[in-house]
Design goal:
Helices cover about 45% and strands about 10% of the residues. The chain is of the alpha/beta class and about 625 residues long. A hairpin with a 1-residue loop joins strand 1 and strand 2. Helix 7 packs across helix 10 and helix 19 packs antiparallel against helix 21. The protein is elongated, with a radius of gyration of 41 Å. Keywords: Coiled coil.
């Protein structure tokens, strides 16, 4: 017992000595003007208290910690320790240097962590994004997106292979669980795993436990679609008329003049009630308007040059040869089918399979834009609902904006701005924010930025531009954005009051569905069992502009043939008349009674001839209406 008492007294003396040394050092710093004079009691100075605590916490003889609640010795009570550890005790700052506290765990101070925790503590329903990373994940600080703010749109960006698709999948799963329908284009086929429960594993469970996620495998209601029936899914088709000249000009790569000319063609079709169902209808209409029969009509509408019409026809032909005919036709898809929920209240996830997107990127992106535009026209205004009616994920968004005309960009910007009031949220998924035009980017409320790479000067410029778009934070974003791991992202969203939340380095949640594609046999079974297949599966080819204009051309050709036959008959009659006069002149010296045989006339002779009989027969058929068409 006496040994322990001696050791305790030695510890107290060492603490007092350390405190005295700290006081002397503090006085030197104050005299040098480096540190402001502090409280009269040195024990209240953080540096002094920290030094005392460090000396008192260790037994100098055994180098073992002294018990935290050791009873006082000989009435001596240790001074309270309430100061912070210096930034770097082993390397004191040089005179004149500004000393800042440094968090040994991560880039954020405790106060900044608290600010992030409070910034994402929403009252209403929200989607869980993951846990804050500050050195290690902090399960107590969860990052979320308010459900009612998803119709303010969003952006998921990041380099290839950084986890964008899995982020999309995780959000789609939570939306479905909240009763919100989802639409997404499945570019690589990875999202089909939503229809199958995920597989557990040691690494997966360790990761999810580290961020506070209670993971369990789960499948979600999924409807598979295929563009024009190319792929596994219920066919989605659109008529050329509903697609419209602006979107079609984007697909065909037309310039502004050619796009205006195409608009004239659509206006004529609408005026003349010529249904433009598929591409052959549009080709036939262009041929009609640039031909002899339609030129007067085209001139009345304003006219297009032969060269412009030729360019449009060539682009249409090339477009058709790429297989685009399958995308246009009937039965046209009703976009309200995307708003379905299951009887138990889960939102249906609609996945559009796009196996050939690499060869037709413009068609893919523009077709998705048609879906949005059609939804905008059909849906009623709903104001500001507690949750969206639909969330639309626009993957590979850079394809949509590439080489887009001003009118096309204007249409996209207007749709993004106004469709929010219809209860539809749009999330663009692309590699860098610069892929999205500024006017569109300004409409996006939530951002999930995965790792960016800066291997080239252009990449470095894009990185700096991205950093400038974020609110101020405790991060060196240029450094953080290039060092994020797979499944990590920088997140900032629109809070419940409309203000942006603090920037948060987040380790994202793992999807509950399969991270591998659903087997093809399972997908085909789901498509065959879909109630939509009977409605949209068959392709219908009803009478449209092609058939109507073909009939007009046939009638015009017959009328031309009739006109040619009439002129031929008149010429033949005139010839016979001339011959008859010549014959009468040659017989003028003979007997008058020996004139025309049987007393007939020239007209009678012509009617009795074979040519006259043919003409009479054609005229009679035309009058009776039984001329072959």
């Amino acid at each position: 017992m006496s040994d322990e008492l001696a050791e305790a007294r030695a510890a107290v003396e060492a603490a007092r000595k350390a405190q005295a040394e700290a006081e002397a050092r503090l006085a030197e710093l104050q005299e040098a003007g480096i540190v402001e004079p502090g409280p009269a009691d040195p024990a209240h100075d953080p540096a002094v208290a920290a030094a005392a605590a460090e000396a008192a916490a260790t037994n100098p003889r055994t180098a073992e910690p002294v018990p935290e609640h050791e009873p006082p010795v000989d009435g001596v009570v240790e001074a309270p320790v309430d100061g912070a550890v210096p930034a770097d005790p082993d390397e004191p700052a040089e005179p004149g240097a500004v000393v800042e506290p440094k968090d040994a765990e991560g880039p954020l101070t405790p106060a900044e962590v608290v600010a992030i925790r409070e910034g994402y503590a929403f009252e209403g329903a929200s989607l869980e994004m993951g846990a804050l990373v500050n050195g290690d994940p902090d399960p107590e600080t969860q990052v979320r997106i308010p459900l009612r703010m998803l119709n303010r749109h969003g952006l998921i960006a990041g380099a290839t292979g950084t986890g964008k698709t899995k982020t999309l999948q995780g959000l789609a799963e939570q939306l479905s669980a909240a009763g919100v329908p989802v639409f997404a284009a499945d570019i690589k086929g990875d999202l089909s795993g939503l229809a199958s429960p995920g597989e557990s594993g040691e690494k997966l469970l360790a990761r999810t436990a580290g961020i506070g996620q209670a993971w369990e495998p789960k499948a979600f209601p999924t409807q598979f679609y295929a563009l024009g029936g190319r792929g596994i899914g219920v066919p989605i088709r659109a008529t050329v008329l509903s697609f419209g000249p602006t979107l079609l000009a984007k697909v065909l790569g037309l310039n502004d003049t050619q796009e205006s000319s195409l608009g004239i063609v659509f206006a004529y079709a609408d005026e003349q009630r010529l249904p433009l169902i598929d591409l052959k209808d549009l080709r036939e209409l262009l041929l009609w308007l640039t031909g002899d029969e339609g030129k007067p009509e085209l001139k009345r509408l304003g006219g297009i040059s032969t060269q412009t019409a030729g360019v449009i026809l060539r682009e249409l032909t090339a477009f058709s040869e790429q297989g685009a005919d399958a995308f246009f036709g009937e039965t046209e898809f009703d976009t309200r089918e995307l708003l379905r929920t299951t009887p138990d209240g889960l939102g249906v996830v609609s996945l559009l399979e796009l196996p050939g997107v690499a060869s037709q990127p413009a068609l893919f992106s523009t077709f998705l834009m048609w879906l949005l535009a059609d939804l905008f026209e059909d849906l009623p205004e709903v104001g500001d609902p507690e949750k969206p009616k639909l969330v639309f994920f626009f993957d590979e968004a850079h394809l949509l904006f590439k080489d887009a005309s001003k009118d096309f960009l204007s249409a996209i910007t207007q749709t993004v701005r106004l469709i929010r009031s219809k209860g539809v949220g749009i999330v663009f998924v692309t590699q860098t924010p610069k892929d999205v035009p500024g006017d569109v980017l300004a409409q996006l409320g939530s951002r999930v930025q995965h790792q960016l790479r800066a291997h080239t000067p252009d990449d470095a410029t894009a990185l700096r531009a991205t950093v400038r778009t974020y609110p101020r934070s405790g991060y060196d974003l240029e450094q953080v954005l290039t060092s994020l791991g797979i499944g990590e992202a920088i997140v900032t969203v629109m809070g419940e009051q409309g203000a942006p939340t603090p920037v948060a380095w987040t380790r994202l949640r793992a999807p509950q569905g399969s991270m591998d594609p659903t087997p093809e046999a399972t997908m085909r079974q789901a498509v065959d069992a879909s109630p939509l297949l009977a409605t949209y599966g068959p392709a219908i080819d009803r009478e449209s502009a092609y058939e109507i204009l073909q009939a007009r051309l046939a009638a015009a050709q017959e009328a031309q043939q009739d006109e040619e036959s009439r002129k031929a008959a008149e010429e033949e009659a005139a010839r016979l008349e001339r011959e008859a006069r010549a014959n009468r002149g040659s017989r003028s010296g003979g007997s008058r009674s020996g004139g025309s045989r049987g007393g007939g006339s020239v007209v009678t002779d012509f009617i009795g001839s074979r040519t006259g009989q043919t003409i009479i027969r054609e005229i009679v058929r035309g009058i009776l209406g039984n001329r072959r068409r």
